[in-house]
Structures are given as C-alpha cells and as structure tokens.
C-alpha cells in the first residue's frame, strides 16, 4: 500500500470506490486503500498507525478542524478535502433535487420519501434538506445511495471534494 484515503464512514468509502470505478481507476492496483475510520474522532489514532504512505482525508465541514489538527500532529501535511455540509449535501447539490428524486423512484424509495416530507417537522423545509435527512436516516440507506448517486453523476459535475481526494492519491 502506497497511499491511504481516510474517510469518516462507510458511505464515504463507497462513494469514492464508485467514483474511482467510474473514472477507470483500479485503486488496489495503484496501491491505494480507503479506510472508513468510524467517525472523525478516530482520525488521530488511525494516522498514528500509518507510516510512509501518502495520506488524504475526506470529511464533513464540521469535522474539518479536527482532521487538520490530527494530520498536523502526525507530521503529515493536511491533504483534507471537505464536503459541505456532508457527502449527501454535495451529491444532492451536484445532481439537483429532481434527479435525486428520480434515483429514489428508480430504487423504490420515492413513496417513503414523500411520506417523510409530509411530517410536520419536515413539511416546510427545503427539499434539499429533506433529501439529506432521508438519506441519513439509516446507515444502509446512506451507503446504498452513496453508490447510486455517484453512479447518477455526470462526470463533469463531480463534487470537488470527491474528485480532489481521489486525485490526491
């Protein structure tokens, strides 16, 4: 292994793996491994166990400072790519709400999403916020849609943090 990408969770890992496949990259052949670290609080511990590899990170905006501090404490130049506010937000913005709803429909989840939209707490919120909440309402859904939404992306409109972390290694 010559390079490592650190991500917060499994959905981030799936998104990068899917994008690499779509871009024609064989990460294993390139010596690149993606570690889903189980949350941003683990980044320092994981970095301490790495030596000699190029390392890049992908995190949510609220975790950026912690990621950067951990890289600096480990003596690694911070190669941190930040999703604003998170992976789902980046993908929804890149695709547009209508295209995300089409992906939901093609995968049998549009009626569940419509039900969630009717709940009083979500009824008056912007559709992008509703979609983020729906995607994040379960680990399986979040992981599943990470791949489906990256597959739906126009490769000319990939969110910068995803392309950036992949290009860094």
How is the secondary structure organized here?
Elements: E1 3-7, H1 10-22, E2 32-36, H2 43-48, E3 54-60, H3 64-73, E4 80-83, H4 87-95, H5 97-106, H6 110-118, H7 120-123, H8 127-135, H9 139-152, H10 160-167
Parallel strand pairs: 1-2, 1-3, 3-4
Helix pairs in contact: 1-9, 1-10, 4-8, 4-9
What are the main properties of this structure?
4-stranded parallel sheet, alpha/beta, 4 strands, 169 residues
CATH architecture heading of the largest domain: 3-Layer(aba) Sandwich
**Major sheet summary line:** 4 strands, parallel
Helix/strand order, N-terminal first = EHEHEHEHHHHHHH
Mean pLDDT, rounded to whole units? Answer: 95
Task: Determine the fraction of residues in helical runs and give it as a percent range.
Answer: 40-55%
Overall SS class = alpha/beta
Number of distinct beta strands: 4
Number of helices: 10
Amino-to-carboxy terminus distance? 11 Å
Walkthrough of the structure:
With 169 residues, this protein is α/β, with parallel strands linked by helices. It folds into 2 domains: 3-86 and 157-167, Dna Topoisomerase Vi A Subunit, Chain: A, domain 2 (3-Layer(aba) Sandwich); 87-152, no CATH class. Helix content is 54%, strand content 12%. The chain has 10 helices and 4 strands. The chain has helices at 10-22, 43-48, 64-73, 87-95, 97-106, 110-118, 120-123, 127-135, 139-152, 160-167; strands at residues 3-7, 32-36, 54-60, 80-83. Strands 2-1-3-4 form a 4-stranded parallel β-sheet, sandwiched between helices.
